[in-house]
Design goal:
Among the domains are: 39 residues; 34 residues; 106 residues, Arc Repressor Mutant, subunit A, CATH 1.10.10. By secondary structure, the protein is mainly alpha-helical. Strand 1 and strand 2 form a beta hairpin. The chain contains nine helices and five strands. The radius of gyration is 73 Å and the shape is elongated.
């Protein structure tokens, strides 16, 4: 009991000296912080750098490095030798495989070359061979035909699909076309049955002269009537009257033949009209040319204005000639 008490007492003394030593070894700033805990709100923390222990060189490390480098070099050399040996084995296998395939190809070539030269031992075998050749050719021909006809078959399939797609529209168009054609043919038939060619109109010979009854009052209730034939049509007489009304007094044959609307290229008619005017004293002759006198001007002016002769003149009614 006394021994235990002594041990505890010694331990307490040792623990007291340890605490005293720690207090003595504490820095002054730490003691001040402990003794005076006054601190501000914006105190900047102080970082304490941890010291890195510097390695100390080992005695004989150069030899260790040399041994490690040599070991690594040996490992690489051994690995390269093993890899090269393995690749050599693979190359040998590939060479053997290629040689085997080449020999197999040679055998097949010899077989293909010798196949056609085989002579069957019996007639039955010959028949079999001929049959096989024919069948082989038929198969090859079928392959070629199928390849050649493939685009045509594809186009036919596409056409069938399109026809099936637009079948209803095609049917409608066909029916409509048949109906329209039917109506058209019926209309043509009805028109052909009811149509009659128009009767030709009677041709009337162009009037080349005009019969005139010239009536002249002699005074004291007497008059004289003369029948004359003007060798021109009423249209030509109207053109002469229009020229006279516009101040034309001379009727040149060359000018009328080239520039007139009704007397163009009709020299014979112009000569006849000229002579008629002279014979009826409607013009005055002047050195081969003619000039309208007062009676001629009055005659043509009345015809132009009224399209009829003065009271002392009268045309015979024109008769239509029916053919």
């Amino acid at each position: 009991m006394k021994a235990l008490s002594g041990v505890v007492f010694v331990a307490l003394i040792v623990w007291a000296f340890v605490l005293l030593g720690r207090v003595m070894n504490t820095p002054a700033t730490a003691q001040a912080a402990v003794i005076d805990p006054m601190d501000t709100q914006y105190a900047t923390p102080t970082f304490i750098i941890t010291a890195t222990p510097a390695p100390s060189p080992t005695i004989g490390y150069e030899a260790t490095l040399f041994i490690a480098q040599a070991t690594a070099d040996e490992a690489r050399r051994v690995n390269a030798q093993v890899t090269a040996a393995h690749e050599q084995v693979i190359l040998s296998q590939l060479q053997l495989t290629a040689d085997t395939e080449y020999r197999s190809y040679q055998v097949q070539s010899w077989t293909a070359a010798a196949g056609p030269t085989i002579i069957p031992l019996t007639a039955t075998q010959q028949v079999f061979n001929n049959t096989q050749v024919a069948q082989g050719q038929s198969i090859v021909s079928g392959f070629l035909t199928a390849t050649y006809q493939a685009p045509t078959q594809m186009a036919a399939i596409a056409n069938i699909k399109e026809t099936e797609r637009f079948a209803s529209v095609d049917r409608f168009i066909r029916v409509t076309f048949v109906l329209v054609i039917g109506v058209f043919l019926v209309s043509i038939s009805i028109f052909a049955l009811r149509w009659r060619p128009p009767e030709p109109k009677p041709e009337i010979d162009p009037q080349k002269e005009t019969v005139v009854h010239m009536r002249k009052d002699n005074g004291q209730g007497s008059f004289s009537q003369t029948r004359a034939v003007v060798p021109c049509s009423p249209e030509q007489l109207t053109e002469l009257a229009e020229m006279a009304v516009n101040g034309e007094r001379k009727f040149g044959i060359n000018r009328l033949e080239m520039q007139s609307n009704t007397f163009r290229s009709q020299r014979e008619t112009l000569l006849k009209v000229r002579q008629w005017l002279i014979d009826n004293h409607f013009v005055i002759e002047d050195g081969g040319s003619i000039m309208l006198n007062t009676d001629g001007e009055e005659f043509l002016a009345q015809w132009f204005e009224m399209h009829k002769l003065p009271d002392e003149y009268a045309f015979e009614e024109e008769l239509e000639v029916a053919i």
